[in-house]
């Protein structure tokens, strides 16, 4: 399977949201990553349901919603109604992670669990067979434009081993500081899905940046 690219709309120009979503539609990216931040779980706020609904009106890619909110189970049905196909919750934000995963799946969505840089991969071992995606945070969540934490590569390898051991079919996604200089190494470590925010949206030609990234990984 070739590497999936998921541009993060957090890095887009929100005053031009429709144009930015349509740009991603025209690109070779397979997914569109949508970051939801509540100002509690992470020290920043992004946007919420009405903006997600607006994105869904134009988006033609797989909508990949990353919930950086406390007790996300309270809102997963609302995001499912607004086009989310993958819904990822943080292991650190859920009191009842297993229940939240079941809820996401009961809504017909694919379930992901994210691990902050400080969280051990062992935290997800018991739910791995239920998961469609494991999100390895390669920065502390809350802001775009940060540098990838070096320990990420080894962590991806450890998640990959655990996936094999448990017979899980989960994809491994990496989010934060992804760019052309580290993408190949992330994929070699076991990443299936690369989220890229500022690297794509800050470039002069985002469509070409995405195409070049895919060509480098082919
Ligand atoms: C960080 C978000 C990321 C962010 C990535 O909390 O979860 O998805 O948009 O942005 P870059 O690629 O700029 O690090
Ligand atoms: Zn994200």
Concise account of the structure shown:
The chain is built from eight helices and eight strands. The chain has helices at residues 17-26, 49-58, 76-81, 97-106, 152-166, 180-189, 198-201, 206-217; strands at residues 4-7, 31-37, 62-68, 86-90, 110-115, 133-137, 171-175, 193-196. The chain is α/β, with parallel strands linked by helices and 218 residues long.
List the helices and strands and how they pair.
Layout (H helix, E strand, L loop, with lengths): L3 E4 L9 H10 L4 E7 L11 H10 L3 E7 L7 H6 L4 E5 L6 H10 L3 E6 L17 E5 L14 H15 L4 E5 L4 H10 L3 E4 L1 H4 L4 H12 L1
Parallel strand pairs: 1-8, 2-3, 3-4, 4-5, 5-6, 6-7, 7-8
The structure holds D-xylitol-5-phosphate (DX5) and zinc ion.
Task: Explain what this protein looks like in three dimensions.
Helices cover 35% and strands 20% of the residues. α3 (76-81) links the parallel β3 (62-68) and β4. The chain has one domain (4-217): Aldolase class I (TIM Barrel, Alpha-Beta Barrel), CATH 3.20.20.70. The mean pLDDT is 98. It is built from eight helices and eight strands, in the order βαβαβαβαββαβαβαα. The chain starts with a strand and ends with a helix. It has an eight-stranded parallel β-sheet with strand order 1-8-7-6-5-4-3-2. It is of the alpha/beta class and 218 residues long. The chain has helices at 17-26, 49-58, 76-81, 97-106, 152-166, 180-189, 198-201, 206-217, and strands at residues 4-7, 31-37, 62-68, 86-90, 110-115, 133-137, 171-175, 193-196. Residues 8, 33, 35, 66, 175, 195 line the site of zinc ion.
């Amino acid at each position: 399977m070739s590497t999936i690219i998921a541009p993060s709309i957090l890095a887009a120009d929100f005053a031009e949201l429709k144009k930015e979503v349509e740009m991603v539609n025209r690109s070779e990216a397979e997914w569109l990553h949508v970051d939801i931040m509540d100002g509690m779980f992470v020290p920043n706020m992004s946007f919420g349901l009405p903006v997600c609904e607006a994105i869904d009106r134009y988006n033609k890619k797989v909508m990949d919603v990353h919930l950086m909110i406390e007790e996300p189970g309270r809102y997963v049905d609302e995001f499912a109604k607004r086009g989310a196909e993958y819904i990822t919750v943080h292991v650190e934000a859920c009191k009842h992670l297993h229940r939240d995963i079941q809820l996401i799946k009961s809504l017909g969505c694919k379930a992901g669990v994210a691990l902050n840089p400080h969280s051990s991969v062992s935290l997800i071992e018991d739910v791995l067979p239920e998961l469609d995606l494991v999100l390895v945070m390669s920065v502390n969540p809350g802001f775009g434009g940060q540098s990838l934490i070096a320990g990420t590569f080894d962590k991806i390898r450890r998640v990959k081993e655990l996936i094999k051991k448990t017979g899980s079919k989960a994809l491994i996604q990496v989010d934060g500081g992804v760019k052309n200089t580290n993408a190949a190494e992330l994929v070699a470590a076991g990443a299936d899905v690369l989220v890229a925010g500022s690297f794509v949206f800050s470039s002069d030609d985002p469509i070409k940046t995405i195409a070049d990234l895919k060509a480098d990984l082919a």
